[in-house]
Every structure is written in structure tokens, then in C-alpha cells.
């Protein structure tokens, strides 16, 4: 295992900046997720670690070595591809053992090793099959086996679960998490699925338009999203964002918008500065932090019922405020949601996140690291 | 489902028309199967009475014609190997590398493909071959065919390779394979169905071609079957139908055999890889 480091890496395709001057370090044994929408540069970054793309400028280190211009075969890395890239003319045993073949291992030795790895992944009795003769989940595990069959410094994953159906994806995700705990591997994992990133990563790098917007542990990404972009991207459903007018009343901050009256928020220096500029604020509240209330609650969001989805353990209640903005609440009680036209929800002031006019989070005074 | 009367009539009419067209195409083939076994074959179709192999015996006795079959084989196989090998490497490079303007290169090649082996280029080809000193050799025929067929072969294969995910070779290289290893271990087997198509197409083209060997060759013992077939014409230029039919049947067998072999061994597949 080894660390991975990006030093001011930029990658351009023609005039398009896929990755703009990013720097970060993945410590030895860390599981990093690159999270972002398509076209944000996450896959390009991963391919640069693999050596399948060469940076336009900057430096990439694996362990102590500068690998920026090293051929993929000389990097001692493993990669799992989104389409699995299983060789259609080889059976599973030969597919899994291929990395050992190019390393010059004998047939017996590599088939023995392939069998060991395949058994761990529960595909040991399929080794004589061709990739076209097994299911998608088995194909995924085969490609994982091929990545695990040889010693590797860094494991790269390019959306490895996105071709699986929902149930298999959960199962495979759990297995990857187990594997990480077991092996303590250094991994860089690309995904656009925030749940996958939250579940697997020790740290998440949220990317947008070629830049890293926030690089932090999942819990921090979730509780303290650095920008409205991160807040919108992480969480399912994403954080509710409500543009509000803020005023200072005594020692507390008051926020108002159509159907919104929030009276119990602490004031911070950041908020004072933002209000001083005269620009509006954005209030962010996660759906799971909203609970049913009344219009007299101290922190209140209300509107007309729009949708009421029963998910089993929870309900997703969506309502529309007077200006048309929609807010979703995730209710965990079994209480029937009032079917009346107008609904009101309340939340604890500690769960409110405020963003300034540029979309950056305003920290509270004396914020402790999580 | 019941058809109305006009619908029924239309369907009968269509079937009758299709049958007539089918028969028109079948007639030469039927002649082709019967005539070689008929000692008195003419241009009309007749069931042999009695069936005889005498035509074949006479043809086998014609050394020039028999030698022609071997020459055809040498030129076709030589040309096919050259075309397939060069087209595979060139198409792979055109498909996978990031040369600027590579699609223009491909289309210019395609444009030239119909020119180089065409009749229009015969005079310059003759002059080039002559000045290189390759006149009257198998190599000359093979090279000219390869040159003529390569652009189209490259075009077909490039399209085929474009449809194969790059991740095959990428995963091989990440796993430790050199680009050459990745090509031979992974890419080549996946491209093979495309190569087979090119092989068959090139073989049929060379095997059936008359003009190029006729112009580039002088010696009787180098002439392929397509030229040697003229030894079954009388000096007045009229065909000896019986022998011509027998020789034609023999001449067509390798192509039929190749088709059967390929479809048995590989199947004619125009796709590659696993569908995700």
C-alpha cells in the first residue's frame, strides 16, 4: 500500500479544462471517494492516477515515486472498471489470472491463486465459464478478483457498482467496505452516488467543474457542507435550500421568506458580515431534521402539501411554499401526516446551515472540529 | 386473420413476382451444377443423361489450368495475409491513437481504395511495377492487390475496432501488460471476427480478379485460374462449354469452402465484446 498525491494537477482536452489545478493527498490506507456530477473531472483524475491519461501540468506521486509520466504497467496499481472490461475470449480463471500471466507466473501457480481469490468472492465454481455466461453481479466480482489477485499499491475504482441493480449494489458496497476494513487498502473510488461515497469513504472529495469543492470526512461533508453545491449533492433527498431575508432581533437571528419564519438562531461574526453586505442568505435544512409542527413554532417552515410518499420506515412529505419553492421533510414517526392542504414543520436551530450570497457556508462562532 | 379479396390478390401477385425473380437468379446456378456432369452440355439447362465425370478428367489433364488453381491460391493467400496483417495494425493505430486529423486520413484512404486497384490506375501501376523490376512475379500481383484492398480493409476494421471498448486494453495495461502484450492477448482476439470478415472479403476479391494478373504476368506458369480459364476457349474464341463448366465448378469450390469454414469456425459476427 502507498499514499497518492496530486500536486497542482491540470488536465485539458483541447480547450476544455477537465481538471483545474487540483492538489490533494491520500494517506496510506485511506479510502477516498471522488464524488461529483458527470463531467466534473473525477474519472479523469482517477485515470491520471492509473496512467491512462497524462496530466497537462502538475505532478502525481504514488508513495515516494513521481509517476506522472510512468506507463500504467509500471505503477503497481489495480483498477476496477465501470464496464468490468472482462476479456470475452478467456474463461474466468484466465481473466482473473491475467495479471499474473503478464508477470510470468506458471499456469499452475496463477490458477491456484485465481481459485483462492475467486473462492473469497464466491465465484470459485464458475472459473470455467466465459464472462458472457455469468450474471452482472458475478461479472462485477470477477473484475474485482482480477484487481485483487496481485499485490498492488493503490486500488482504483471507476464507478464499479453503477451497472448493478439496486439490491446487488448494496450487497457489493457492503463487501467493499468489509474488504477495506480487512485489507486496509489505499483506494480511490469514483462515484456520482453520494450514498456510496458516504458509506465507503474515509474522506470524500466533492468535485465540481474540474475543482475539488470540499475534501473532508463523510460526516463533515454531511453536517457542514462547504457550499450550496455540496449541500445539494449530498443527502437523499438533498438539503432543502430556501433563500431568506435575515434580520438581527436582540441577540438572535431572524429569517423570513414566504411561509418561513425562523426566530431562534444564534448570531455569528460571519452572519453579521454577510448581512452587512445587504445580500440575502440561503437557509439549508436537511429533510431528516424537519419534524411536524405548527405555524406558531419558533422555527417554522410551512406550505401546501405537494406529495406524500410512504417509504416504509419513513415518509417523504413535500410541500410547496407560497413562492413555489418546494421543501421536503423526512418523517420517521408512524403518525399519519395531516392530509389537510396546509402543513407546517419545525426544526432545531442547531440543524440549520446558512450560506452567504456566494453560496459558501457561514460557520458558527467557535466551531469545533467534528 | 381473414384477408379481403384485393389483399389476397395482392399477396398472390407479390408471391408470383418474387418466385419469378427467384427463378431468374436460380437458373444460372442450376446450369452451373448440372452442366459439368453433362458430356453434351450447352448453354441451355439440361439434366445430364448419363451423368459423367469425363469433363473433369479432361480438365485435370490440362496442366496450364491446374497450375492456375495453385497460382490463384498463392496470390490470394499471400494477398490476404498481407492485407489482414497490415489492415489490422493500421486500423488499430487509427482507432486507438490520438493523431490529429485521423478521421480525414481514413476517408482519404477510402476514397483512394476504389482508385488504386481500379482500371483507371492500370497504366501507372504497370509502369511502377515494371520500373521496380517486379514484372511477371507473384509478388507484383500480391502487392498491387494489397495496395488496392488495404484502404477499404482498414476502413472496415477501424469501424469495427472503434466499437470495441478501450477498457479492454486499459485494464490489461493497468494489470501490468505492455501495449504489445495488451494488443496480442486482449485486443487481437476481440477484433478477430472483424479480421475474419476482411480475410474472406479480400480472398474473394483476389481469387476472382482477372485484369491485374493478366496485365502484370507474362509466364504461363504464373497465371491464376481467372486467366487460365481462357484455355477452355477454342482458337476462334468460342467457349468449350463442357470443360468451362467443369473448371468453373472447381474454381468456385475454394471460395465456398472458405465461407463454410469461416461460418463454422467463427460465424459471421459483426460485433465484438460483451454487452454490458
**What percent strand of chain A?**
25-35%
Radius of gyration of chain A: 24 Å
Largest sheet of chain B: none
Order of helices and strands of chain A: EEEHEEEHHHEHEHEEHHEEEHEEEEEEE
Per CATH, which architecture of the largest domain in chain A?
3-Layer(aba) Sandwich
Q: Helix content range of the residues of chain B, please?
A: over 70%
Shape, principal axes of CA atoms of chain A? elongated
Mean pLDDT of chain B: 88
Which segments of chain B are poorly predicted (pLDDT under 50) over 5 or more consecutive residues? 270-276
| Subunit arrangement of the protein | heterodimer
Main structural class of chain A: alpha+beta
* Strand count of chain A: 20
Quick one: overall form of chain B?
globular
End-to-end separation of chain B in angstroms reads 40 Å
User: How many DSSP-defined strands of chain B?
Assistant: 0
The CATH class assignment of the largest domain in chain A is Alpha Beta
The stretches of 5 or more residues of chain A where confidence is low (pLDDT under 50) are none
Mean pLDDT of chain A: 92
Helix content of chain A: 10-25%
GO molecular function, one term (chain A): ATP hydrolysis activity
Domain ABC transporter (chain A): 4-234
Pfam families (chain A): ABC_tran, OB_MalK
Keywords (chain A): ATP-binding, Cell membrane, Membrane, Nucleotide-binding, Translocase, Transport
Amino acid at each position: 500500500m502507498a499514499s497518492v498525491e496530486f500536486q497542482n494537477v491540470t488536465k485539458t482536452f483541447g480547450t476544455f479544462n477537465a481538471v483545474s489545478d487540483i492538489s490533494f493527498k491520500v494517506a496510506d490506507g485511506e479510502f477516498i471517494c471522488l464524488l461529483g456530477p458527470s463531467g466534473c473531472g473525477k474519472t479523469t483524475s482517477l485515470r491520471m492516477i492509473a496512467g491512462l491519461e497524462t496530466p497537462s501540468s502538475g505532478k502525481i506521486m504514488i508513495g515516494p515515486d513521481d509517476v506522472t509520466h510512468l506507463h500504467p504497467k509500471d505503477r503497481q496499481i489495480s483498477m476496477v472498471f465501470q464496464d468490468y472490461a472482462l476479456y470475452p475470449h478467456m474463461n474466468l480463471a484466465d481473466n482473473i489470472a491475467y495479471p499474473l500471466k503478464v508477470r510470468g507466473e506458471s499456469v499452475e501457480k496463477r490458477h491456484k491463486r485465481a481459485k483462492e481469490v475467486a473462492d473469497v468472492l464466491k465465484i470459485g465454481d464458475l472459473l470455467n465459464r466465459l464472462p458472457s455466461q455469468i450474471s452482472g453481479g458475478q461479472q462485477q466480482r470477477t473484475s474485482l478478483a482480477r484487481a485483487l489477485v496481485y499485490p498492488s499499491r493503490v486500488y482504483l475504482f471507476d464507478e464499479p457498482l453503477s451497472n448493478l441493480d439496486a439490491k446487488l449494489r448494496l450487497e457489493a458496497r457492503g463487501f467493499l467496505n468489509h474488504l477495506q476494513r480487512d485489507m486496509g487498502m489505499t483506494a480511490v473510488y469514483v462515484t456520482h452516488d453520494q450514498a456510496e461515497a458516504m458509506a465507503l469513504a474515509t474522506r470524500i472529495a466533492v468535485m465540481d467543474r474540474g475543482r475539488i469543492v470540499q475534501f473532508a470526512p463523510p460526516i463533515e461533508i454531511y453536517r457542514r457542507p462547504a457550499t450550496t453545491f455540496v449541500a445539494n449533492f449530498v443527502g437523499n433527498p438533498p438539503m432543502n435550500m430556501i433563500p431568506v431575508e435575515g434580520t438581527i432581533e436582540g441577540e438572535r437571528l431572524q429569517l423570513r421568506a414566504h411561509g418561513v419564519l425562523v426566530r431562534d438562531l444564534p448570531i455569528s461574526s460571519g452572519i453579521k458580515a454577510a448581512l452587512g453586505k445587504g445580500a440575502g442568505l440561503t437557509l439549508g435544512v436537511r429533510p431528516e431534521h424537519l419534524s411536524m409542527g405548527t405555524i406558531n413554532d419558533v422555527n417554522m417552515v410551512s406550505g401546501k402539501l405537494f406529495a406524500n410518499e410512504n417509504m416504509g420506515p419513513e415518509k417523504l412529505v413535500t410541500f410547496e411554499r407560497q413562492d413555489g419553492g418546494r421543501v421536503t421533510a423526512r418523517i420517521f414517526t408512524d403518525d399519519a401526516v395531516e392530509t389537510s392542504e396546509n402543513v407546517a414543520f419545525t426544526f432545531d436551530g442547531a440543524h440549520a446551515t446558512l450560506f452567504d450570497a456566494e453560496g459558501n457556508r457561514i460557520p458558527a462562532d467557535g466551531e469545533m472540529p467534528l | 386473420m381473414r384477408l379481403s379479396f384485393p389483399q389476397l390478390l395482392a399477396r398472390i401477385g407479390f408471391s408470383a413476382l418474387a418466385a419469378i425473380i427467384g427463378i431468374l437468379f436460380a437458373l444460372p446456378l442450376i446450369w452451373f451444377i448440372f452442366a459439368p456432369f453433362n458430356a453434351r452440355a450447352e448453354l441451355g439447362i439440361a439434366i445430364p443423361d448419363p451423368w459423367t465425370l469425363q469433363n473433369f478428367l479432361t480438365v485435370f489433364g490440362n496442366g496450364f489450368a491446374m497450375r492456375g488453381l495453385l497460382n490463384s491460391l498463392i496470390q490470394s493467400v499471400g494477398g490476404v495475409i498481407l492485407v489482414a496483417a497490415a489492415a489490422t495494425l493500421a486500423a488499430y493505430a487509427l482507432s486507438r491513437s490520438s493523431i490529429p486529423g485521423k478521421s480525414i486520413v481514413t476517408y482519404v484512404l477510402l476514397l483512394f481504395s476504389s482508385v488504386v486497384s481500379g482500371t483507371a490506375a492500370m497504366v501507372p501501376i504497370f509502369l511502377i511495377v515494371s520500373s521496380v523490376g517486379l514484372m511477371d512475379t507473384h509478388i507484383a500481383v500480391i502487392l498491387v492487390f494489397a495496395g488496392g484492398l488495404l484502404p477499404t480493409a482498414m476502413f472496415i476494421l477501424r469501424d469495427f475496432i472503434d466499437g470495441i471498448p478501450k477498457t479492454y486494453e486499459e485494464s490489461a495495461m493497468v494489470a501490468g501488460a505492455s501495449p504489445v502484450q495488451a494488443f496480442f492477448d486482449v485486443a487481437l482476439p476481440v477484433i478477430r471476427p472483424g479480421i475474419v470478415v476482411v480475410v474472406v472479403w479480400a480472398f474473394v476479391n483476389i481469387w476472382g480478379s482477372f485484369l491485374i494478373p493478366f496485365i502484370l504476368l507474362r509466364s504461363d506458369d504464373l497465371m491464376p485460374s481467372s486467366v487460365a480459364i481462357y484455355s477452355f476457349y477454342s482458337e476462334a474464341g468460342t467457349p468449350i462449354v463442357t470443360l468451362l463448366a467443369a473448371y468453373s465448378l472447381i474454381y468456385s469450390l475454394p471460395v465456398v469452402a472458405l465461407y463454410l469454414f469461416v461460418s463454422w469456425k467463427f460465424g459471421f459476427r459483426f460485433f465484438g465484446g460483451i454487452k454490458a
